Amino acid sequence: MSNPTDLRYTASHEWIRVEADGTLTIGITDHAQEALGDVVFLELPEAGRVVAKEEAIAVIESVKAASDIYAPVAGEILAANDAAVDAPESVNADAYAAWLFKIKPANAADVDTLLDAAGYEATLG
Amino acid sequence: MAQQTPLYATHVAAGARMVDFAGWDMPVNYGSQIEEHHAVRRDAGMFDVSHMLALDLEGAGAKAFLRGLVANDVAKLGEPGKALYSCMLNEQGGVIDDLIIYYLSDTSYRIVVNAGTADKDVAWMQARLTASGLVATLAVRRDLAMIAVQGPNARSKTWAALPGSEAASAGLKVFQAAAWGDFFIARTGYTGEDGFELTLPVGQAASTWAALAAAGVKPCGLGARDTLRLEAGMALYGNDMDDGVSPLDAGLAWTVDFKDESRDFVGKAALVANGASKQVLGLVLEDKGILRSHQQVFTATGEGETTSGSFSPTLEKSIALARLPLGVAVGDAVEVDIRGRRLKARVVKPPFARNGKAMI
Questions:
Q1: Which residues contact A86 (CB under 8 A, 6 or more apart)?
Q2: Tens digit of pLDDT for each residue in B65-79?
Q3: pTM
């Protein structure tokens, strides 16, 4: 699966969708779910939590291993996707549909520091 | 540079995700690891285990040598092809490796050892053999590939894939093997299911794999192999025991044979002197999360440690093997430290699942 060009990315394999109101919706990339294998557990941050850029704020566990998920920018958690927590395999089924949490960025300009699809693909080598 | 088995190209062509395992480039999964796991519990799956090493020990001194080398006693083997699981210990009673020994005759044994320990095993065995003065030769058989076919339908699908093999292997009891031409067919495995482990010439590995696949045996990676053996309560070298752990503390006392008091074996004195200080039991996580190896366990009688942990596809819960204080009993409530949080778990007696069914 190719990485949608309307999303932004991090080198740590998160995707970020910038919504019309400036809030961010975040998940993990298809490359990441493929590498993890069958996802069986998600631990997501609670709404209201203030997070720093690159802070480990969520955990995704596959049968094989546990991995951290990082905040792509500083801000406040607005929501977590309880449906994904209840059905962790949805991340494998469609990593770009199974969003994990939403952030209100502390500084809207921080979004400009994120990778675009081509930039992310370049990090995969 | 990682080593490759004779089936490397087959795995890559099938789209397997390849990872380094003990210095070997091995398939961890071909698609969904959970589906591969279920295929073995419910039907038939196969694993490339050619990274493991077969050794042939032959000579008049072979039996006496093995009686002194390993903690289980090969003297109990009398039926041709009968297999014995044993630990090979160092002088301190730590486990150098766990291995399978097949009895062919009093002067001929086939030994299968783990990939990650193969070099040190051979060096240890050869040095002990030379020092013993016993007459036997140890041959390294990297000319052989190994395929494990496991599951309730593994034997019938093997017979369909390999015409003529049924006559040679239908009468095998569990933990027994027989030669079939250039093949060695053993009714053994590491999954808690019935099936065979096939040892065969490297040159026939790819065609045999293809024939098994055509007969409906699903290729499975080492990921599923790990969750299957964990559910079956089987120890993994390097996780559940190693050079610094006695088999008596690793849940492997049943593999140590003290019956013949006149028999000495490497590590015996240390085992007798130290006895058991821990026990191995299973854990089922009751809170949400996933148990992993080497997490701290808090019990009413002291602390312990998980040695292997994962998600159990059969139980759809997280499970672990844990090395616990001797006072802990099945049914006890304990807590496990997972990333700084103490989560609730229940102590159970392994296995967690075998022969297609949940056991707890």
A1: none
A2: 999 999 999 999 999
A3: 0.96
